Amino acid sequence: MMEDDFRSAAIVGLGLIGGSLARDLAERGVPVRAYDADPQHLASALREGFVADAIDASLSGVCDADVIIVAVPVDAATEVLRRIEPFAANARLITDVGSTKARIVALADELGLASRFVGSHPLAGDHRSGWDASRTGLFSNARVYICPPSNTLGGVVELAAQFWRQLGASPAVLSADDHDRQLAWTSHLPHMVSTALALALARTGVERGDLGPGGRDVTRLAGGSPDVWTAIARDNADALDVALATAERELAEIRGALRRTDAAELHQRLASARAWFDV
Amino acid sequence: MMEDDFRSAAIVGLGLIGGSLARDLAERGVPVRAYDADPQHLASALREGFVADAIDASLSGVCDADVIIVAVPVDAATEVLRRIEPFAANARLITDVGSTKARIVALADELGLASRFVGSHPLAGDHRSGWDASRTGLFSNARVYICPPSNTLGGVVELAAQFWRQLGASPAVLSADDHDRQLAWTSHLPHMVSTALALALARTGVERGDLGPGGRDVTRLAGGSPDVWTAIARDNADALDVALATAERELAEIRGALRRTDAAELHQRLASARAWFDV
User: Which of A88, A274, B89, B112 is most open to solvent, judged by the fewest CB atoms within 10 Å of its CB?
Assistant: First the structure.
């Protein structure tokens, strides 16, 4: 444990992100207590030595932790934050790791946690999920968005940035609303486009093994967790709706050019996409 | 040069595929003659020693080659095949490498080349293009579809399979029509979906650098050559139209579930996509 490390951590949820946090923190010598709704994940984490103590479903076991991390799907995260709040008096930092931020950051304000809570969103996703997908070093060089409550005090933002930097990540501060609007385009839309392509192929009897390396890349995100992504999509529905409509329109316009045998327009669209790619 | 190697090769077009063929063949000791419409590409290939002799624009220089490979975009490939045919009497094998096969294979039949021509399509694409993107080993473990003309003789199919196996590829025989129908889904649709996503992001001012690793994967194909892909899309327009319409519908249905706040349907769609992914 380095001098400026947190003395102890509590993690609620040992999925890809929570599990990887447990591994990284344990390797730094920070004692980790954790809860997971799946007793097998918790048992694995304890057996493999990354989690020192189990927290029971009351979540009262977070009470001694210097940093508390909520690492459950975004639809469950607000409920977890409500439940840990009575036990969180000793925590210098409380954060979460969800892909949408407005709702949980507003709740932190409402619960009076603004001086100790910031929302976090590490861009360290993977199509795999669960404890078995977690690994050390997941956050190395990853961008992490840090979204403070509106009533925040400066110190907690710096503390959160320090937390993520210690794990090798690159933090950037952004308002929760800006975050959600931006991520609708940069993350949630690509996920749904990849999913739609997978569904079109599935409907036609094409298997993923029939694809070349390019097609496999485009469909990789379709392997993500349905629980996690249903929650994200619902939580950011309005912004995602606009993004999806835009992608639908672009697809329809490509098809229109094709049907009109308008090679010049088709070429221009492909060239615009490549110009964007090449920036 | 191995005993069963071709004695000499002529390559028309030194892009990603043609250039990589020149490199692999030269490294096996097969003398390569080549033509490229871009004199700089040809000059680079000669200077770097992968091409022994330049062929001029008449293409008459293919006349001594044991194997002739047409490696230009599919809209130019039929014209090139017509032009080389008078000079191709000595070739044991004539093939191409385009992503659509029905048109060129039918032309080979029409030109009386059925006993020496098969269409080839190596699934070794990349978003980069041109001589500078070409490299040795590109075909290692790559699937290569081999599409014989309807009047083919068995020997030429085996010869083509041997050609590709020598470069480390894994050939599979498929009729040209089946190939084009299948590739509309497995390759051309993913390309256009990736392009549509890139255009939607470009329109919104999102840069590729703003994306996480997942979004970057989904948009990778958007970096492909507009020339190559305009030609492919036009050549396979009917099959691609059906595929694009299916993807549009899937995207619209995801958006519909989102707008109706129908979490169960959204979850079911995400779960279906993941089930397809996991097969």
Answer: B89
